[in-house]
Amino acid sequence: MNAYEVVIAGGGPGGLTAGLYCSRAHLKTVLLEKALPGGEILNTGVIEDYPGFDVIDARELAKRMENHARKFGVEIRQLEVTRIRKAGERQFTVETPQESFQAKAVIVATGGSPNKLGVPGERELAAKGVSYCAICDGPLPMFRNRPMIVVGGGDSALQEGLFLTKYASKVYIVHRRDSLRAQKILQERAFNNPKMEIILNSVVQAIQGNEFAESVTLKDLQKGSVRQLPVTGVFIFIGFTPNSHVLDPSLGIQKDAKGYLLTNEFMETSVPGIFAIGDIRHQLCKQITNAVGDGTTAAVAAERYIEGSLHLALGATT
Ligand code: NAP
To test the ligand 1 pocket, which listed residue (286, 288, 290) has its Cβ within 8 A of the most ligand atoms? Predict the structure, then answer.
């Protein structure tokens, strides 16, 4: 078994920052990431709200974070964490399909997965016009100069919808309520973009198509009317579900009703030695800046926990 002081599960901005700080503290640390370091930000185009960079390509920011963490010696492995469990007093096992790792402290940074609409045609037409990632799929030739629909009214829907206007003939934003949830600056851009049309109080009831998506069934919730809207791309951004299932149920870790992990100000979960950071933890907003701050705190807290000087909180009993 590979023995480490800290295992970091997840390599988004939070995990990479925790890796940087743990390594600087000379803790033997491994970061396990199922895909490429960078996490969710690799699914976006440009970042314009990370201090110090008024505009930066998301991939460049991710690469810089990875390089910075590696510079201080963090080991990064491309492995998917499938289970985190207790392995005795102040010891944890972090499992992947290939290998298991022993850790004195675990920093959980596994983020979340995109929510599904759950309507007919969504599953059948996934990757055939139905997508959860504009940056990955928007530039594909099949969408060029065609109408697309984006479902959702949050930051992701508007940001990704604005990105899609580069390729689409038209982008419809379909939102279930009478007002958008997204930041005002994104709303202004969306309302001012001639290629965008915002359809409020409406829901997608089904997605039709043979080989590829061809139209959606749209219901106006105020009028009760239903119509077919021809579209080639259906991009769904209706929030996400935290990947907290990797924590073994026997840990009894505290979560909120949606599955986000509860932490205190030290990023400690209810299980001493397990810390949670970034999108997986219950907090007001999910920004890169939040994840980076969480990663810093968790690394310092993990160091103190390992040396036995961290005051335990959240009702912990050991
Ligand atoms: P979100 O803020 O949770 O928004 C999800 C949207 O989907 C909401 O408008 C919600 O409607 C709608 N929705 C949820 N379930 C639905 C369903 N079953 N059918 C139809 N619509 C549904 O998620 P997000 O936009 O992915 O953002 C997640 C977090 O990342 C947020 O904290 C956000 O601020 C952050 N983020 C930030 C940026 C940035 O530029 N800084 C970019 C992307 C994301 P209701 O409004 O009615 O609930």
Answer: 286
Q: Which CATH class is domain 116-236?
A: alpha beta
**Residue whose C-alpha is closest to residue 47's, from 223, 292, 217, 317:** 292
Which pLDDT tens digit goes with each residue over 176-210? 999 999 999 999 999 999 999 999 999 999 999 99
The confidence score (pLDDT) of residue 46 equals 80
Residues in contact with ligand 1 by the CB-under-6-Å rule are: 49, 117, 151-157, 159, 175-177, 181, 203, 237-239, 285-287
Structure tokens given for 45: 């185009």
What residues does each domain of the chain span?
Answer: 2-113+240-307, 116-236
Q: What is the CATH number of domain 2-113+240-307?
A: 3.50.50.60
Centroid of ligand 1 to alpha carbon of 154 (angstroms) = 4
**Which of 7-11, 135-139, 211-215, 253-257 shows the lowest mean pLDDT across its residues?**
135-139
Distances (CA, A) of 19 to 25, 65, 113: 10, 10, 22
